[in-house]
Specification:
Blueprint lengths: L2 E5 L8 H14 L4 E5 L5 H11 L7 E5 L3 H11 L5 E5 L8 H7 L2 E6 L3 H21 L4 E9 L7 H14 L2 E8 L2 H6 L13 H21 L3 E2 L2 E2 L1
Parallel strand pairs: 1-4, 1-5, 2-3, 2-4, 5-6, 6-7
Antiparallel strand pairs: 8-9
Helix pairs in contact: 1-8, 4-5
Length: about 230
């Protein structure tokens, strides 16, 4: 059965594309077939894919498509969804009319955030949209918030410390225990050198790989219903 995961945060620059690229690479490494759909007008995902083609660095098991409208997404889902184990959807960094159709097609929505008030509010909006679509369509799309571009300095800020009580206790959605740190390797991947999993293993790559593996394991647990806000089920 095809699993659909979307990255949604109405505030741009949260790291949605990077997170999806890393997740896609991990699923592909396991032997799965992955479709990535670029719905962002900035076309970051498609630019990466084109650069990978030009550098002969296309990852096996991954295909990338571009659809900017809800109708295009719906048509693609109807015709091609079943050909893949996982479908990952990259959405615009702004509030648009495509958010509801994306949620309606998804099993899990991940809202990446940097520790900033603007992005935390964007993640909360995304969660509220998931709840609303679930209630309207009688679905059970799950939602989780993922902290990205973390540094040692950021971890000592007041807002970072407040994220967990805000997200889990006050809002009531799931906060990933995994975090995505600020790493140069993630920036390098965007230059069309394939996925993280294709790179020669150095200390930096090994740390990034462990980070991604931890995240994907948690994603799988959340999809299986083994995790809920604040605790393991």
């Amino acid at each position: 059965m095809t699993v659909v995961i979307a990255a949604i945060n109405g505030k741009g620059g949260a790291g949605k594309t990077t997170v999806l690229m890393n997740i896609a690479g991990e699923y592909a490494l396991r032997g799965g077939s992955v479709a990535m759909i670029d719905m962002d007008a900035r076309n970051n995902l498609m630019k990466w894919w084109t650069d990978c083609q030009e550098k002969d660095a296309q990852p096996e098991g991954i295909e990338v498509y571009s659809h900017k409208t809800a109708r295009g997404l719906e048509r693609w889902m109807h015709e091609q969804r079943g050909a893949f184990d996982h479908v990952l959807i990259d959405t615009p960094g702004e509030d648009t009319s495509i958010v509801d159709p994306v949620i309606a097609s998804s099993d899990l929505v991940i809202s990446p955030i940097q520790p900033s008030k603007r992005e935390v509010l964007g993640a909360i909006d995304s969660f509220e949209n998931v709840v609303r679509v679930n209630e309207t369509l009688d679905r059970n799309c799950r939602h989780g918030v993922l902290r990205t571009r973390i540094t040692v300095t950021v971890r000592h800020t007041e807002l970072y410390r407040k994220i967990r009580p805000i997200i889990e206790d006050k809002v009531g959605t799931y906060l990933f225990r995994a975090e995505v740190f600020e790493r140069n390797v993630y920036k390098d991947i965007h230059n069309g050198i394939g996925t993280l999993q294709m790179q020669e293993v150095t200390d930096a790559i090994a740390k990034a790989r462990r980070e991604t593996q931890t995240l994907v394991e948690e994603v799988d647990q959340l999809l299986r219903g083994e995790l809920t806000a604040g605790r393991a089920a």
